[in-house]
Amino acid sequence: MKYLIIGASAAGLAAAETLQKINKNYKVTILCREKKPYSRVLLPYLLAGDVVEQEIFLQVPEGVELIGKKEVIQIDPKKKEVFTTSGEGFSFDNFYNLIFFNDLNVMFC
């Protein structure tokens, strides 16, 4: 089973970790705009000098593939594929993407 998670926020990483705990044979991939995931909550502390840059980065769960610098611009739930700004397509069996409450209708395809 291939799971695709769009976004490497704390929620996306928690979803990936949960999927790996459910079944280690799941292929879990995270697509994110950033090069690597970081904690947005810690940004004010970084700017204030209370933490160093390395402290804001989040760990990707073991067994999860992170593909950074990819911005998803189109989701085709019927074909089970997403497309990025670079034109690349990524297929999935199930995907997780919840940006706004209204996205619930396409969260699990």
TrEMBL record:
Gene3D superfamilies: FAD/NAD(P)-binding domain. Residues 1-89 form the FAD/NAD(P)-binding domain. SUPFAM superfamilies: FAD/NAD(P)-binding domain (SSF51905). It holds the Pfam family Pyr_redox_2. InterPro entries: FAD-bd_OxRdtase, FAD/NAD-bd_sf, FAD/NAD-binding_dom. Keywords: FAD, Flavoprotein. GO terms for molecular function: oxidoreductase activity. The keyword Ligase does not apply. The keyword Flavoprotein applies. Its cofactor is FAD. This is FAD/NAD(P)-binding domain-containing protein. It comes from marine sediment metagenome. The lineage of its organism: unclassified sequences, metagenomes, ecological metagenomes.
